[in-house]
Amino acid sequence: MLDRQRMDPALYRDAMSRYAGHVQLVTTALGSERRGVTITAACSVSDSPATVLICLNNSNAKNEIFFKSGIFALNTLGADHQSLADAFSGKTQLTVDERFAAGKFETLVTGAPVLSDALAAFDCRVLEIKQASTHNIIFGEVMAIRYSEPKPALLYMNRGYHTL
Question: How many domains is the chain built from?
């Protein structure tokens, strides 16, 4: 059995910065309150039933709405969404209303805000939340899907945006 060693967080982050991730915007709503966060930690879990997962930092008190609402939308961003990705990442210091005004949002089934021109949008109800260290993994059953015509994707790698 191997002894558990503590990995240096800075070393880990530097290595992970070389890992290309598709830029996603995850959104939710609870009553009149809305929240959106730019993430790269999201993926498909299953196609039967259609299920995705997202990972959110549990130390940010503003993310609590994701854990309470029971819904979220996973919006896949294209190359033309870089300014929207910046807005929801917090880099621009915009208010919640200003962030949502930067894109066109609608609702499908659950009531979570869906980006109208996302490459793909998955409207989900929360199935399960698991805490893993600094993050919560939220599993969502896909209740509705919307997608646009194929266009270049927005990726994040080496601490910067790229397209594919």
Answer: 1
Q: Say what the pLDDT of residue 1 is.
A: 61
User: Considering only CA atoms, which of 7, 5, 144 is closest in space to residue 72?
Assistant: 144
CA 143, 149, 150, 156 torsion: positive or negative?
A: negative
pLDDT of residue 61: 92
Question: Is the entire prediction scored with pTM above 0.70?
Answer: yes
Q: Is 152 helix (H, G, I), strand (E, B) or coil?
A: coil
Tokens of 37: 């966060």
CATH code of the domain covering residue 107: 2.30.110.10
Give the pLDDT of residue 39: 97
Residue 72 one-letter amino acid: F
- The radius of gyration of the chain from alpha carbons, rounded to an integer in Å, stands at 16
27, two tokens: 């959104």
Distance CA 22, CA 17 (A): 13
- The whole-number average pLDDT for the span 30-48 is 97
Domain residues for the domain of 108 are 22-150
How far, in Å, CA of 52 to CA of 143, rounded?
11
